[in-house]
Design brief:
By secondary structure, this protein is an alpha+beta fold. Helix content is 50%, strand content 17%.
């Protein structure tokens, strides 16, 4: 891995919460908001903001409906989101496989 560049990491995926959400959603057909909230241990508002960013980027598809007069929101990863997650994981694997001589040296060197 020559010329390692940290900018290869998608900043949208790099967030702890968004990365966790995508990791969950690539392994299931879809998931409810409450399930995601419990899994990533986020507040409603914080999770909602992260989900909105992923949706706006085209990484998630959202469906909303009511069950017994209660709102139910489900999320599904799109092919764009699945590919972004794959690229992110590939980049992490490249860094982990790199030999020390292939990684950038610190400025203090």
């Amino acid at each position: 891995m020559t010329n390692y560049d940290y900018r290869q990491f998608d900043p949208l995926v790099h967030s702890r919460i968004r990365l966790s959400v995508l990791a969950i959603l690539v392994s299931v057909d879809d998931a409810e908001f409450t399930y995601l909230r419990k899994q990533v241990k986020a507040t409603d508002g914080n999770l909602g903001a992260h989900l909105r960013r992923l949706e706006e980027a085209g990484y998630l598809h959202v469906t909303k409906h009511f069950v017994d007069r209660k709102p139910l929101t489900r999320y599904r990863v799109t092919e764009t989101g699945r590919e972004a997650f794959r690229r992110y994981v590939d980049n992490v694997e490249q860094v982990l496989r790199a030999t020390p001589s292939e990684l950038p040296r610190s400025a203090a060197g």
